[in-house]
Design brief:
The complex is a heterodimer.
Chain A: E1 2-5, E2 11-14, H1 29-35, H2 44-57, E3 62-63, E4 68-71, E5 74-75, E6 88-90, E7 93-99, E8 106-114, E9 124-126, E10 129-134, E11 142-154, E12 157-169, E13 173-176, E14 186-193, E15 201-208, E16 213-220, E17 231-237, E18 240-241, E19 244-245, E20 253-263, E21 268-270, E22 275-280, E23 286-294, E24 297-302
Parallel strand pairs in A: 3-16, 6-22
Antiparallel strand pairs in A: 1-2, 2-16, 4-13, 5-18, 7-17, 7-22, 8-14, 8-20, 9-11, 10-11, 10-17, 11-12, 12-13, 14-15, 15-16, 18-19, 20-21, 20-24, 22-23, 23-24
Chain B: E1 2-5, E2 11-14, H1 29-34, H2 44-57, E3 62-63, E4 68-71, E5 83-86, E6 89-92, E7 95-101, E8 108-116, E9 128-138, E10 144-154, E11 157-167, E12 174-177, E13 187-194, E14 200-209, E15 214-225, E16 229-235, E17 252-262, E18 267-269, E19 274-279, E20 288-296, E21 299-304
Parallel strand pairs in B: 3-15, 6-19
Antiparallel strand pairs in B: 1-2, 2-15, 4-12, 5-6, 7-16, 7-19, 8-13, 8-17, 9-10, 9-16, 10-11, 11-12, 13-14, 14-15, 17-18, 17-21, 19-20, 20-21
């Protein structure tokens, strides 16, 4: 494992690149840790899903050693809203959140999604980030990773851009410079903390299942931050950019599938079993709505910029 | 409407460009027909969906007068190869998805579907791979009226087009719409209307790219369709044979708003139909290559397993 300190003192470690023919089911737990691959789960349902992901990838998966770029002006962070039960409103988040009572914590979260193409409703820059994460609702920290789908319009010229990133808020976003992401790609993400509540380290595994490229990294929590693990979430977000709430890009529609989280005691919690969060603008008009379609499927739809 | 005869004598009708700012909810049915916009449905659920679609897309709706290319490929109806996992799941050599059947004595007149167009990749660096996402009206046998998006992939090169086809099992080709922009990640809404359900020889295809705001429609004709079934499908064309190994890796796709309306104005949800999986040999005994999963009555997920 190679330890790196990025700008702003952000600490991360990268793993050894696994051999091209690695079989996670034949590898030891020590080998999986060495290569930054998620541990093979004991739960039969999780095991079946793990097999499905790796069967899909095994003939074409290429691992890359991630290269990073701190984006000090970008934060995903907290939902920016009042906590309440049932459907909630946020100025920055839309999606699904599950919570645990005090004394319990999430250790692990996973989710799949297809990267949407994006449009800018008018001239200027618009942003969207599709991510999964632990904490933030409640809590002042979020352990998260996702894909940004941003777009800039100037007249008829529309320039979208896409990249993968991770963040352990309150630290800023860190872009992964060499993990290619294109619209329409199917992404699988798995985030594991070492122990749930109290963790100061966590591993992010990202696979672009369309391109057949994967990477992993071990994050260290910001100074004086430990994981609470009280919430897990699957979110389409308008991030905080340059200190202000950004405008949401028209992302069309995103289905999160395989929305599952695992607690410190190994219990499986479905992402669709909690609350949905809708995003609103300053006048409380809906911009992005989330539906809990099934226990493991969540849909987010852009509904913003509607004419009167 | 402008009538055009394409290669092979295929006749299509092209609609007039709608005026800027046109509101389908205040337009007459005659105006909607003239401008190639779908009729406003009477069913409250469909009407609500129509309103949502147009409210979202209206500010950027751009009509594209379609240009065509006759493509020698053809997409098949689900060729059901036997019961796969139970009475509601079937195996096919070339299509996977969901298939609903109209009640006896009734037929499918109209159908719709939304999906985010996946990116695709070639499972190996050698050879050509294909993948299409479409909705279609037809019957268990006989002619079919279908439209969607298809890919042809070779290494890192890929071609993709919106297409429609109205063909008999033995004759007919895909018509690529060469100037309607569809890219990976775009949210697409497609609507098919037949003139009268069973026996129709005329129909209209409506495409809305809800990401870009692009819209096109075309009046088409073909051999009389039984219109007993409607389907939401992922698959590959038949011209290159029935080998599932030519299916490109599409990851996953969710078909949403899967609904069809019969001549008797019965609304049929796609999720109430039968699953069809592509298997390696097209039979129930083959390995599943592309799996279809009903998520809800109106949402179907298809997953590439390879």
């Amino acid at each position: 494992m190679k330890h790196i300190t990025l700008d702003g003192g952000i600490k991360v470690a990268t793993f050894k690149i696994p051999p091209p023919d690695i079989d996670p089911f034949a590898a030891s737990q020590a080998e999986l840790r060495m290569y930054g691959l998620p541990p093979v789960p004991d739960d039969p349902h999780q095991l079946a899903r793990y097999r499905r992901v790796f069967n899909h990838l095994k003939r074409k998966l290429t691992f890359v050693e991630p290269a990073f770029q701190v984006n000090p002006d970008r934060f995903h962070g907290l939902p920016r809203r009042a906590v309440s039960e049932g459907t909630q409103l946020s100025s920055g988040w839309s999606g699904a959140v599950v919570r645990l009572p005090q004394g319990q914590s999430f250790r692990w979260i996973e989710g799949d999604f297809v990267v949407p193409n994006v449009d800018a409703p008018s001239d200027g820059s618009f942003y969207s980030a599709v991510w999964i994460g632990i904490d933030g609702d409640p809590g002042i920290q979020v352990f998260q990773a996702g894909v940004s789908c941003d777009v800039h319009r100037s007249g008829s010229s529309v320039q979208p851009s896409f990249y993968a990133w991770w963040e352990w808020f309150p630290n800023p976003e860190v872009g992964i410079k060499n993990l290619p992401v294109s619209p329409g790609d199917m992404i699988t993400m798995v985030l594991c903390s070492t122990q749930g509540q109290g963790s100061t380290e966590g591993t992010v595994f990202i696979a672009n299942r369309t391109a057949g490229i994967g990477t992993s990294m071990a994050l260290t929590a910001p100074a004086n931050i430990t994981l609470l693990g009280r919430s897990a979430e699957w979110i389409v977000e308008a991030p905080n950019v340059d200190g202000t709430q950004s405008r949401l890009a028209d992302y069309g529609e995103v289905f999160f599938s395989a929305c599952e989280a695992v607690t410190g005691t190994g219990a499986l919690v479905d992402g669709g079993s909690g609350d949905n969060i809708n995003m609103v603008d300053g006048t409380l008009s809906l911009i992005s709505v989330a539906e809990l379609i099934t226990p493991a499927v969540v849909r987010c739809q852009y509904v913003g910029a509607l004419p009167a | 409407m402008k009538h055009v005869t394409l290669e092979g004598g295929i006749r299509v009708g092209i609609f007039e460009k709608p005026p800027t700012g046109m509101d389908p909810f205040t337009a007459s049915q005659a105006e909607l027909r003239k401008y190639g916009l779908p009729p406003v449905p009477e069913d409250p659920r469909l009407r609500e969906r129509y309103q949502r679609l147009f409210r979202q897309i209206r500010r950027k709706l751009t009509f594209v007068e379609p240009a065509f290319r006759v493509n020698p490929a053809r997409f098949p109806r689900p060729a059901i190869g036997g019961i796969f996992g139970g009475p509601e799941t079937f195996a096919s050599p070339a299509t996977s998805g969901i298939l609903v059947t109209a009640p006896s004595g009734d037929s499918i007149r109209w159908m719709q579907g939304d999906w985010v167009v996946p990116n695709v990749s070639a499972p190996t660096q050698d050879g050509e791979y294909f993948c299409a996402f479409w909705i279609g009206i037809g019957g268990s046998q006989g002619p079919a009226f279908q439209a969607g998006v298809h890919y042809r992939v070779s290494g890192t090169n890929r071609q993709m087009f919106a297409f429609w086809e109205w063909l008999s099992p033995s004759n007919g080709h895909i018509l690529d719409i060469t100037n309607f922009s569809v890219r990976p990640g775009d949210l697409l809404s497609v609507i098919l209307c037949t003139a009268q359900g069973a026996g129709s020889t005329d129909g209209t295809v409506y495409f809305f790219n809800r990401t870009t705001g692009g819209h096109t429609s075309v009046a088409v004709s073909g051999p009389a369709v039984a219109a007993s079934t409607a389907e939401w499908s992922v698959g590959f064309p038949f011209l290159w044979g029935g080998n599932a190994s030519i299916l490109a890796d599409y990851g996953e796709v969710f078909f949403a708003e899967c609904q069809a309306v019969t001549n008797a104005f019965i609304l049929i949800d796609g999720g109430t139909g039968s699953n069809v999986n592509i298997t390696s040999d097209g039979t129930a005994n083959g390995a599943v290559v592309s799996e279809s999963i009903v998520i809800t009555d109106t949402i179907v997920q298809c997953v590439y397993l390879g």
